Amino acid sequence: MKIGVEAIEYVLGEKRCDLLQLEAQGRLETPSAQLRAFGFHYAFLGADDAFNLASKAIAALLQKHNLNPEEIDAVFFAGALPTSHTLAGSGGPLSVFNYPACKLQYEFGLLNATVIGISQAGCMGMMSAVKCAADFLRANQAEKVLCVSADVFPSDAKREVLYNVISDGACALLICKNSTRNLVRAHRQITKGYYWDSATRQNEIIAAYFPTAKNIALGTLSAAGVDASEIACVIPHNVSRRSWDILLDLIGINPERLFGENIAAMGHVIAADNFMNLKDAAATGRIKAGDKLLLFNFGFGANWGCMLLEH
Question: What tens digit of pLDDT does each residue of 253-268 get?
Fold first, then answer.
């Protein structure tokens, strides 16, 4: 069964800031020169909340790809931040059950869609949503699933997390049976609950990051019967370029195969990075039909994930 990521649209926060601006505003922990050396140049900040950014991404997906909302069989809503999964209400106990995924289903007329939220995978949320969507399609008489992620940092929050510069943004995907591109060939996820308290165990997370990432990347390739030399392009999450140089060396892939342009251009857009980069890699001609693509992501909590796609 050919299941793949058929269409991708994304939006970023409307205000682009360079590192010097963020530093002047007191929104970085690390000197801007050091973050620039790590590969970052800009971050996007938005006045919109996560729901409005998700709405814009879904609207673009439906319109640009001429999709009938009533043909969508499921919606998987992902976000790394707890605030992405709640909506303000009139107050009282019932307001804690105001979910953005349900409001999106209603406002866009996705009347036949089952709605599911994925909220505890951190930056892994969108990759987990794609895997769940693929499983949903295999298990049901369904044809199309919409996946959407959206995250917005609080307006007064720092824009750096463990030497990574953070942007606001949202991404919407169409996952289809009989897809013509980006076929899901393999997926693997490792969760190590010992690291659930990210602030307390941040040094231990950093120590575990590379060996676990190497393990899951090589394990994903091995399970699919694919050698690292066959990977045409690595589609990253937009964390430090230096960290990617280390990881690619560990798994035996030439750094030139990394689509890393968006690390500088937009920073780390939480759960959306991999699929925003997939769209841009295709749009710029970096990848071609039949290419094997390796997607890797990490989410606090702590989760490591890897996916093999065939473009």
Answer: 999 999 999 999 999 9
